[in-house]
Write a structure and sequence with these properties.
two-stranded parallel ribbon; 4 helices; single chain; mainly alpha
Length: 86
């Protein structure tokens, strides 16, 4: 599996939108760390982010909104929140 800035951002976005569970996000990250081929131009940033996501299901580590925003920022993106009636 190719791990790119876009694929990491897509998975984080899916998680933040509620279409991917934390366990699904962590499973993807663990698989990416073991079997992924990181984009050479961004290996350091991508591997740091994916490694951090990989431990997000451990209570002591979790994954905060601020961390997600910072991860997206390091990918050159920003998060936007839309509030809608439930």
């Amino acid at each position: 599996m190719k791990v790119t800035r876009e694929s990491v951002a897509q998975h984080l976005g899916d998680y933040l939108h509620g279409t991917l569970s934390i366990s699904g996000l962590v499973d993807w990250a663990e698989s990416a760390m073991c079997d992924g081929e990181f984009d050479e131009a961004q290996t350091a940033v991508l591997s740091d982010i994916v490694a951090r996501i990989g431990v997000a299901d451990v209570r002591a580590f979790g994954l905060t909104w601020e961390e997600c925003r910072e991860m997206l920022r390091s990918l050159g993106l920003s998060a936007k929140v839309d509030l809608v009636a439930a």
